[in-house]
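Notebook, p. 212. Picked up where the previous page left off. The plan for this session was modest: take the two constructs that came back from the sequencing core last week, fold each one, and keep the raw output in the notebook itself so nobody has to go hunting through shared drives later. Recording the first one now, exactly as returned: residue sequence, then the structure token string.
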Amino acid sequence: MNIRTRSSAIIGAICLVASLALTTASADEPVAPRQAAKVTLTKVATAQNPSAGAAGPGGTVWIAERAGTVRVLGPKGLGEPVLDISGETTTDGERGLLGVAFDKRFAHFYISFTNLEGTSTVDEFAVRGGKIQPNTRRTVLTQTQPYSNHNGGDIKFGPDGYLYIAFGDGGAGGDPHGNGQNLDTLLGKMLRIDPRGGKPYAIPPDNPFVDDPGARDEIWAYGLRNPWRFSFDAGTGDLLIGDVGQSDWEEIDWAPADSRGGENYGWSRMEGTHPFRGATEPANHVPPVHEYDRSGLGCSVIGGFVYRGKAIPDLKGQYVFSDYCDGTVRTLQMKNGKVTGVSDLGVNGGETVSLVEGCKGELYVLGIAGSISRIDPA
């Protein structure tokens, strides 16, 4: 979600804006567009301001609606809400129900939302027989948000079985509190916790800052502005993050599956590969693998997934992403953490707010106006 501070970004639904420039550039040098896989978008359902989704039990896809409901996408479309927290959240600014995730065994369901006070909250529910057990609900983690934008809010389980949580820098513009580079706050960070290992959670012993008295133990990576969407490559375990920029550059960050954490992605001293407002690049800055400027329509990158489905063989192994304002679905071809090609798939999801990976690796595109579309072979 946007994710970016500008008047057109917060209009009615979700604050994500603009589109990917037709000429994209990697973090290192321009990359020529490649021959794109031939795909089409098949509309499979309509939701009320869908914001996120996750693969669910029985081959279903669970869709979060920003106002606070969760509905299950099955062969016959969306069902009635299986969860409704609409009385506990608000769509003010960039708030709402922002992320959902299942653990590996579909035994627990997690939601990430901002409560009525604007506090980011991650709650857990037990799941039995594919159904949420409301009486098992408990709060795992909370984080106060100083402003109503840059909440982040995406959640995913990594290949290691731990829960990763993405928080933005706290909002306003330009990171006024310096949260991105401050290791004593959870804002502007990627967190890694064990939600079942303690009350309310445990810290994985190999987290990178557990022995640092000046840093929060939950932190896995830092220097993020608003990591609205991130994912793990189901084939390799690599981590990819779409981090929304401030004024000029959108970026996609990457970490290999064998990373030990601690990456500094640069914000707010860097925006992409560029010093922000005259700052000096940190010595440990990990530059993005891809960035694009706002010379076109681009303004809010929507991170996606590496395609590991079977329906579109020509797309396999490519990272699929979009931009809220542009809506065009694009891909990166990568090898050993380097971008080797960029493609425009020639389809548009509208004001794309999220991509969702189903149980078999097929991808869905969510438009904030309500469309839920599957990426199919043309």
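Okay, moving on. Second construct, recorded in the same format:
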Amino acid sequence: MTEKALRLGTRRSKLAMAQSGQVAEAVSQVTGRPVELVEITTYGDVSREHLAQIGGTGVFVAALREALARGEVDFAVHSLKDLPTAQPDELVVAAIPVREDPRDVMVTRDALKLTDLPRGARIGTGSPRRMAQLNAYARSRGMDIETVPIRGNVDTRIGYVLKGELDAVVLAAAGLNRIGRSDEVTDFLSVDTVLPAPGQGALAIECAADDAELIAALAELDDPFTRAAVTAERSLLAALEAGCSAPVGALADLLADGQIVKEMRLRGVVGTTDGSTLVQLSTTGPVPETHEAAMALGRELATEMLAQGAAGLMGERAQ
């Protein structure tokens, strides 16, 4: 007799289905049980408003979490950058697998790089974080660009460039890699130019906190280095009291000496969307061995950023 299939709750977008399918395969391997995808429509999928207007925080997550709480699905897969920093008691992030490329990328007209874009180039992005950093970069280089708020799936966004309505759009490298479209990237944006969103490129696999057997099975997919890095990034975001749609970038990376990982560096940035003011700082410490140590690294950097005026740059403070 075959074991009952595990039900994986996923958003319906092409990207969500692709990343959930990859997780389903991995979970099936570690549990020996079939995994079926249960498609769930979230508020973020059906609303036509800009993400910054509908609050950003949790709009793609709430419906999946409700299905988990009601027992309609056994576990759910989220893009970690969409996950609010507050964790409900009844749910647990059982695994954070190895992170994909965290960088932002550009898809541009005529395969241009960011530095080759013509004067007055129109760059589409729905992210205040990307706008702030691109505008700051352009200012520092005497470039003339205009950031244009857009939303929609990958096809819609790239379509604006193909139809000539925009000169470029900015997307996450991880998403394009997961749907097999990385060959359309014309420029990988260095993290020195644009710091990604906290948790970008990582996935969170969440299940009920009282399902010990499933938690143990899913834990086999957890990558401790990725978990430490994204925990530090999200701790920074939480300590700045900012939501997922705030103009905050953060990236924790490992600094190695040859083959030996020595330290973790955490970089953070917050800025006004016009790029006129940025607070950008970094801190380096031992690789966190515990959840608390990773949290402390994020809080420490947030405190320094707030001392330099970060709070005034985020518009409305997230409630």
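Notes on construct two before I forget. Residues 207 and 214 are 8 Å apart (CA to CA).
Flagging for discussion at group meeting.
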